[in-house]
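Q: Is it fine to ask for two folds in a single conversation?
A: Yes, each is treated on its own. Send the first.
Q: Here.
A: Result:
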Amino acid sequence: MNDNSKVLIGLLAGLAAGAALGLLFAPEKGSETRDKLGQSLKDFGDSIKDKAADEINNLNSLKDKVVSSIKSKLRDVEDEYSSEVENV
């Protein structure tokens, strides 16, 4: 995980904690506060899922690039080897 991801996760966690504390100390009825807190936690969970999905997509993209590069290099070596065998 790179530094930007760590900073983003820390920021999201801080925002969620701040929102939760704000709701707990708000002058509203307990049921309303619990509803808001539940919604905030749901939103936080959704943002984590979205971030995880983005990271999975990034890893899949990287995997595809690596596999493509390896296949290309193998084809180059195979072509070079084939031409040397034909010349023998």
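Q: Second one now.
A: Result:
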Amino acid sequence: MKPSPDNDASIAQLADLFHLLGDPTRLRIVLSCLAGPIPVGEIAGGLQLSSSLVSHHLRLLRAARIVKAERQGKQVFYSTADAHISGVLTDMLDHIAEPTNGIDP
């Protein structure tokens, strides 16, 4: 069932998702998860953040179903939750990379 644009609950839920992704640190973390499962330590190292800060953000992102976690031995690997999340982010990255082609700002 698709959320209706007239449904206040759907609008609020979508706004919450965009609010979470509006934080540059969280967005960088999610973008790190696009390529496939990655452990917290690699995300933290790649973004030059502490593992505890990354873990905090991942908890929020996981609660919102933006990322998912999979335990492999002692490590937890994170990836985007599904193709919808990956698609939206990939499409938006493609969009901002496009030349303006004379479109008025």
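Q: Anything structural to flag on that second result?
A: Two points. The radius of gyration is 16 Å. The chain has five helices and three strands.
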